[in-house]
Design goal:
Blueprint lengths: L2 H6 L6 E5 L14 H12 L6 E3 L2 E8 L2 E8 L6 H12 L6 E7 L6 E6 L7 H10 L5 E6 L9 H4 L9 H17 L5 H8 L1 E2 L5
Parallel strand pairs: 1-4, 1-5, 5-7
Antiparallel strand pairs: 2-3, 3-4, 6-7, 6-8
Helix pairs in contact: 2-6, 3-4
């Protein structure tokens, strides 16, 4: 069955990957949109039909690890991400244990990747919205560290800025690591993913 048929006749996705960010070209390179960057790389490396407007965002379907997987980019803006995620899970008939959310984390050191199952939002408004919308925090997360802002810079402004040029190689390594982990999420346990990918990717070794 072709990828177009995955949309038209099924099968429906067996998992849902949600990449958090803000819509609009002006936000494309922002730290807050590092989750979207992971999603765009997965789409580029797994060619197929482009994302379509569904569930208050854009949804693409790709075969990853032999299974049809939904890649959702909410277009609700970060603070209302839960509305898109709840609609997608309901529309696709998926439980929260089939959900993976990929997002930035200011409390993680720059270029650190952390896979985590469950837990609080940790101040992230997108995660807070998803927990509130779903009524549970029991879902898998890939947290990408963007580091804290320098003294005197408002965190709200910091997350909307882009990465420094010198940081971009480390960012690309972290993004590639997240993509590799997501490609294994259907067969590996959360603990196995944590053991393999939870580290700082600033060092190229």
């Amino acid at each position: 069955m072709g990828l177009v048929d995955l949309f038209r006749r099924g099968p429906e996705p067996e998992r849902l990957l949600v990449f958090l960010g803000n819509p609009g070209r002006e936000h494309a390179g922002a730290r807050h949109n590092i989750g979207w960057r992971v999603g765009r790389k997965m789409l580029a490396d797994n060619p197929g039909p482009g994302p379509r407007r569904r569930y208050r965002g854009r949804l693409a379907v790709r075969e990853i690890g032999g299974d049809p997987v939904g890649l959702l980019f909410p277009h609700t803006f970060m603070n209302a991400s839960g509305n898109s995620v709840r609609a997608a899970l309901g529309g696709l008939g998926l439980a929260t244990d089939r959900l993976v959310v990929i997002h930035d984390d200011m409390d993680l050191g720059f270029a650190s990747l952390r896979v985590r199952f469950g837990g609080s939002a940790g101040g992230h408004r997108g995660i807070r919205s998803i927990i509130a919308a779903l009524g549970t925090d029991q879902f898998l997360r890939f947290k990408l560290g963007i580091g804290r802002p320098p003294p005197g810079l408002d965190p709200a402004e910091y997350v909307l800025q882009g990465f420094a040029r010198a940081q971009k190689p480390a960012v690309e390594r972290m993004v590639a690591a997240a993509q590799a982990g997501l490609s294994e999420a259907g067969i590996a346990t959360p603990e196995q993913l944590m053991n393999r990918f939870n580290r700082n990717w600033a060092d190229p070794r």
